[in-house]
Amino acid sequence: MPEEDAEKDSFTALGEALEQDHRRLDDLWEMATREWREDPERSRAHFRTFSRGLRTHIQAEEDVLFPFFEEHGGEGAPQLTDLLREEHGRIREALSALLREVEEGAPDLEAENTALQDALWAHNAREESQLYPWFDAHATRGAAKEVSQEILFRLAGTRGAVDQSREG
């Protein structure tokens, strides 16, 4: 059993990894927002990196995690993923509005940041309290391992860019 537990731990920490990705993206967003008035060009690069990371995160959930949860999560799973997809749509809309303002060099991003914050933070809380714990508690070898690996692979493609933008 210990070998099985070790294998399970190596890939069922997906919920924790996704929560960490939420924090990483929050940090980048905060940095971009904070720098907006002092260094718009640097801030613009951070906003673009944040956008790529957030869009990748959302797409990985929709392509990989949600279908797995719908298949294995029981009766209520489709209702939760329908709600999360709707929220993803609102997040994408708010993110697009924010990026339009960033690209146009708007002097104030408060309204767009607030709209994105309102959409994103409640959504993240829902994922972190319902979806991620379910996966970490119920995922076992096989398909779940593939789900974890695929999502982590996709996220890894944006982590380097986010880390580089912090150094810049």
Q: What does the secondary structure layout of this molecule look like, with pairings?
A:
Elements: H1 2-12, H2 14-35, H3 40-72, H4 77-104, H5 110-138, H6 143-167
Helix pairs in contact: 2-3, 2-5, 2-6, 3-4, 3-6, 4-5
Account of the protein in words:
- By secondary structure, the chain is mainly alpha-helical.
- It has one domain.
- The chain has six helices and no strands.
- The radius of gyration is 17 Å and the shape is elongated.
Query: How large is the count of helical segments?
Result: 6
Biggest sheet, open or closed, and with what strands and sense? Answer: none
According to DSSP, the number of beta strands is 0
Secondary-structure element pattern, one letter each:
HHHHHH
Structural class determined from secondary elements: mainly alpha
Rg value: 17 Å
Beta-strand residue percentage = under 5%
List keywords for this structure.
elongated; disordered C terminus; mainly alpha; 168 residues; single chain
